[in-house]
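pls ignore typos typing on phone
zinc ion + seq
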Amino acid sequence: MISRFAPSTTGEAHPGTLLSALLVWLDARARGGRVLLRLEDLDTTRVKDAWAQQLRDACAWLGLDWDDVVIQSGQRAAHEAALDRLAASDRLYPCTCSRASRAGGRRAPDGGWAYDNTCRDRVLPTNGWRAALAAGAAIRTRLDDVHVALVDELGVDLSQTPARDLGDPVVVRRDGVIAYQLAVVVDDADAAITDVVRGRDIAPSTVTQVLLQRLLGLSTPRYRHHFLLLEPAATKLAKLHGSIPFTALRARHDGPALCGILAHAANLAPTPAAITPHALVARFDWATIPRTDRIARFDPERGLQIEGTDS
Ligand code: GLU
Ligand code: ZN
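k done
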């Protein structure tokens, strides 16, 4: 069993990041598996090296260790090879539609606007996807118009017809950045990942990834989409302004204290008392983990508090 924690290095770690890291790590260790950290740093318009370093520090501070660390930007050759294979099977096309042209159209399951596959019948120039990109297009993959029924190991229903519900996915952005949907599929296969544990915010993307795996002849891992820690406004704790940054958490708590609060929020400990991740391995069980999202609050006096618990 090989699993991974794959944060984007586009902002400071926050409580939801650390909860996810803890659940990924515990799931792997409880089953005697391997677990790697993959720093997802492809979006050059948003990533910072300092945030990548902070994520590594934050995990170590919490008490998590990794069997390997993969820097996603180092995977470029594998990403391009996958694109070449998709091009060879005539699955790529250039798209020059603007984001604005989709607004007001159909809502996608991820909360954005669905793409209507407007450019689907366009063909790549003879010099391939690189030439289309150089000419200013984004590159999309033509998916099969199939419904995929899939319920993850935690009972989250992922079933969709991705080509219609979301539209054909962008695999290379107009600015040349390899898109998440392609990179995640290629990198999970490259690392022989058998189990993907991640937040429910990603659940709407999973079936798109399954269809990309099929097009590339890759196997589909087992998926688990866990509950989230939300801001009081009930939106995802974004790694953006306004969320609870790691620097604030570290100034108020030490690693075992924060681990205790997260473990209690995940119903893995009866109280929020300080504890190490290692001490939680023997009692880890998905059956006890909450199925609904929880609200996190922070103030420098009282520290991190999770609604519905006594922390
Ligand atoms: N990098 C993505 C994120 O931080 C998650 C990738 C994944 O686990 O598939 O939201
Ligand atoms: Zn288009």
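The radius of gyration is 20 Å. The longest strand covers residues 34-39. more later
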